[in-house]
Design a protein that fits this description.
349 residues, alpha+beta, PH-domain like, 2 domains, 16% strand
């Protein structure tokens, strides 16, 4: 409905409510020398315009003119009221005027969409990074336990690796899992992957799960350890929790501002397994793995070669039609990561 003025209106029809009863009084409005005059059914009052509050247009709803004593007027004829007010020099707020200008509506909508994109692209990841360290370790333990329980019920089966082989890998990982002389808390578990196939992933509390299929695919301890050091990087950076938080703005707010992590607990099992890490998270975990490998005099090629084996094991068909539980789903951009690991950035010192 247009609110653009043309000729000043006089005798604008309205309903007057005195603020004491629900009775509506039929009145007419007029303006003289900046004073609003209300005349009608048992009503006669005048009030300077600056002392009144005029509501914004809202579709076909009546506009309200409120008095300081609680009385108010309801005006249905928006155009007539606009002309009356315009004749006094009154102007609606800029944001109200813009709502009736198509060009400004397009601009404001564009600004809104850009703001949403910026929040999703940068705001949520930043908020998740800030909030993740605030999630208590006890919550990480519960998150991980629930996820492991879900995995064992739905996706994985007991390992078939000989106990001696398991112990050898645990000891080998323990010898690698330290930063600046400080050991990294972790627990290494083995499972038969089933539909997961050759896979490894980390739970938020430092539990690392590697499938029998990955161990067989690697053929030796060193490539397995290269993958596991990458997963330790996800643990150190709290990527699992950050991924959960930025996947839900509500969970992020509850964890960061209120300290309530119930939203995380409800969605953790499937989200931790099915959601993919961001490119930045994978870079951080790769950098962490290379740091540990170099500390033992080993090359980034161990991780690069194992990534290629994993990609080949899951097949080209999965690249074009990834399954939610596949390595290429939870560890995206494999080809890009392999190229980076073999670049001069990670060339041997």
């Amino acid at each position: 409905m247009s609110t653009s003025p043309s000729d000043p209106a006089t005798g604008v029809a309205a309903l007057y409510f005195d603020g004491c009863s629900a009775r509506a009084h039929i009145v007419t409005l007029g303006v003289t020398d900046g004073v609003l005059h209300v005349e009608g059914d048992q009503v006669s009052r005048s009030e300077p315009l600056p002392a009144l509050r005029v509501s914004e247009p809202m579709g076909d709803a009546a506009r309200l003119i409120s008095f300081a004593d609680g009385a108010h007027l309801e005006v249905r004829d928006h155009a007539a009221l606009a002309r009356l007010l315009a004749a006094t020099g009154h102007r609606d707020a800029a944001v109200v005027r813009w709502a009736f200008e198509p060009r400004m509506v397009v601009i404001m909508l564009s600004v809104l969409l850009l703001s949403v994109w910026l929040i999703m692209q940068y705001g949520l990841p930043w908020g998740a990074r800030v909030a993740a360290p605030l999630v208590p370790d006890s919550v990480l333990t519960v998150l991980s336990a629930r996820t492991l329980e879900w995995l064992d019920q739905v996706l994985t089966r007991p390992t078939a690796l000989p106990p001696a082989r398991q112990q050898a890998l645990r000891e080998a990982l323990s010898s690698v899992a330290s930063v600046d002389g400080q050991p990294i808390a972790h627990t290494l578990l083995f499972r038969s992957g089933g539909q997961l196939g050759a896979n490894a992933f980390a739970l938020p509390d430092g539990t690392l799960i590697v499938t029998d299929e990955l161990v067989v695919l690697a053929g030796a301890d060193a490539p397995v350890l290269a993958v596991l050091t990458h997963e330790l990087g996800h643990v150190q950076q709290r990527h699992g929790v950050r991924m959960l938080l930025q996947g839900s703005a509500t969970a992020l707010f509850m964890a960061w501002y209120l300290g309530d992590v119930s939203s995380l607990l409800a969605t953790a099992p499937t989200a931790l397994v099915q959601a993919g890490y961001s490119r930045d998270m994978e870079r951080e975990a790769d950098d962490f793995a290379v740091k540990l490998l170099r500390a033992r005099g080993q090359s980034a090629e161990l991780l690069a070669g194992m990534l290629e084996k994993l990609a080949a094991a899951h097949g080209d068909s999965q690249v074009s039609r990834p399954r939610p539980t596949g390595w290429l789903s939870s560890h995206p951009d494999t080809a890009e990561r392999v190229m980076r690991l073999r670049s001069t950035e990670f060339a041997a010192d």
